[in-house]
């Protein structure tokens, strides 16, 4: 492995991951509109470009060129810093996600991951937890009662559901014995079969994590911090121009990251069924080198990982246009009286299954 270019390769991967995150977030707005139009039996965006494909670009131009607005009495510095912090934390959490295995070129090995740290799970959980500060700062700095109420709701909602989410991850940690997202992914590649994925071992933990992911990303039915019927627009009521765009795009980046984390933790990440059989077949019957066959498997795994991610993103959007939002008391009751006890039960159940050698 080359030591000197490693930092350069990591920089390239991080740049590509950040660029992909922003691109996917941008076109998630288009997908949201198309899915909403399909479910509501109406025509979606169809004016900007063929099939409306240029609509996200038109929205971006609009956001950049709209007039800047600062409310009377707002804290200007924090008013600007809030959406910037929300976007920065959303992008930072994607840096440790393994989007593919290793690419081998001669004696050089390159990992399709921005940063490989042995506490990747804690990194994602910690950085995502910081994202709520962007909402709180923006809501408080706006000098608007609706914005402040939205920020308070966001803080209490995130605290409530982060507890259940953290407890659900403890069960995964008990099975894997590591906090490295790459190691967790590789442990699910035994024989290349799907029944070694953690979704088989942790179905209850996955459901808890999925529900908490909706709450952490402020998506329907947990979009109480910005519900229009009660709070006008919640924490971003006073925002316009690209500052509003940063808040909106950070939500979609968080959806992308949450989908990637669920794919990595529970659905095998870049692993797919019969990957090793395909590699051996290429080497034995098609005269591929082992390195070439492994590189092809890595590329296919990355493509299929993004397929899993896009499937979860579609699910997020489908739920938004299917279910109504909860009342706030229902939201808090679900987190404290149902999900947290279920998470503790899941930890005890996992410990028992590990003790008796079942998993």
From TrEMBL:
One of its GO terms (molecular function) is oxidoreductase activity. The keyword Translocase applies. InterPro entries: NADH_UbQ_OxRdtase_su1/FPO, NADH_UbQ_OxRdtase_su1_CS. It catalyses: a quinone + NADH + 5 H(+)(in) = a quinol + NAD(+) + 4 H(+)(out). It is a multi-pass membrane protein. It is an enzyme of class 7 (translocase). Its EC number is 7.1.1.-. Pfam families: NADHdh. It is found in: Cell membrane; Membrane. Keywords: Cell membrane, Membrane, NAD, Oxidoreductase, Quinone, Translocase, Transmembrane, Transmembrane helix, Ubiquinone. The keyword Lipid biosynthesis does not apply. Its main location: membrane. The chain crosses the membrane at residues 6-30, 76-100, 120-142, 163-182, 194-215, 252-276, 296-319, 331-358. NDH-1 is composed of 14 different subunits. Subunits NuoA, H, J, K, L, M, N constitute the membrane sector of the complex. NDH-1 shuttles electrons from NADH, via FMN and iron-sulfur (Fe-S) centers, to quinones in the respiratory chain. The immediate electron acceptor for the enzyme in this species is believed to be ubiquinone. Couples the redox reaction to proton translocation (for every two electrons transferred, four hydrogen ions are translocated across the cytoplasmic membrane), and thus conserves the redox energy in a proton gradient. This subunit may bind ubiquinone. Belongs to the complex I subunit 1 family. PANTHER family: NADH DEHYDROGENASE SUBUNIT 1, NADH-UBIQUINONE OXIDOREDUCTASE CHAIN 1. This is NADH-quinone oxidoreductase subunit H.
């Amino acid at each position: 492995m080359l030591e000197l270019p490693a930092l350069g390769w990591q920089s390239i991967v991080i740049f590509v991951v950040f660029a992909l995150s922003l691109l996917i977030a941008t076109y998630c707005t288009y997908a949201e509109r198309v899915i909403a139009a399909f479910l509501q039996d109406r025509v979606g965006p169809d004016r900007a470009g063929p099939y409306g494909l240029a609509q996200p670009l038109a929205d971006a131009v609009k956001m950049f060129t709209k007039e800047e607005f600062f409310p009377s009495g707002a804290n200007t510095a924090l008013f600007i810093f809030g959406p910037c912090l929300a976007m920065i934390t959303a992008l930072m959490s994607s840096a440790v996600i393994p989007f593919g295995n290793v690419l081998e070129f001669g004696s050089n090995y390159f990992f399709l991951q921005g940063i490989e740290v042995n506490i990747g799970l804690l990194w994602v959980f910690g950085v995502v937890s910081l994202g709520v500060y962007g909402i709180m700062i923006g809501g408080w700095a706006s000098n608007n009662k609706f914005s402040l109420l939205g920020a308070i709701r966001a803080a209490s909602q995130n605290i409530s559901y982060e507890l259940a989410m953290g407890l659900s991850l403890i069960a995964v940690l008990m099975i894997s014995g590591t906090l490295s997202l790459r190691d967790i992914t590789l442990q699910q590649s035994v024989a290349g079969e799907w029944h070694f994925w953690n979704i088989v071992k942790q179905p209850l933990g996955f459901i808890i994590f999925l529900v908490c992911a909706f709450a952490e990303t402020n998506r329907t039915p947990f979009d109480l911090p910005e519900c229009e019927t009660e709070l006008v627009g919640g924490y971003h009521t006073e925002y316009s121009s690209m500052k509003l765009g940063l808040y909106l795009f950070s939500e979609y980046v968080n959806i992308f990251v949450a989908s990637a984390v669920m794919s990595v933790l529970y659905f095998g990440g870049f692993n797919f069924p019969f990957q090793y059989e395909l590699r051996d077949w290429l080497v034995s019957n098609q005269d591929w080198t082992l390195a070439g066959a492994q590189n092809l498997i890595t590329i296919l795994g990355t493509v299929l990982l993004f397929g899993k991610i896009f499937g979860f993103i579609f699910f997020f959007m489908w739920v938004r246009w299917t279910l109504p939002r909860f009342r706030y008391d229902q939201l808090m009751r679900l987190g404290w009286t149902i999900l947290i006890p279920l998470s503790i039960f899941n930890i005890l159940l996992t410990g028992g299954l590990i003790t008796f050698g079942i998993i």
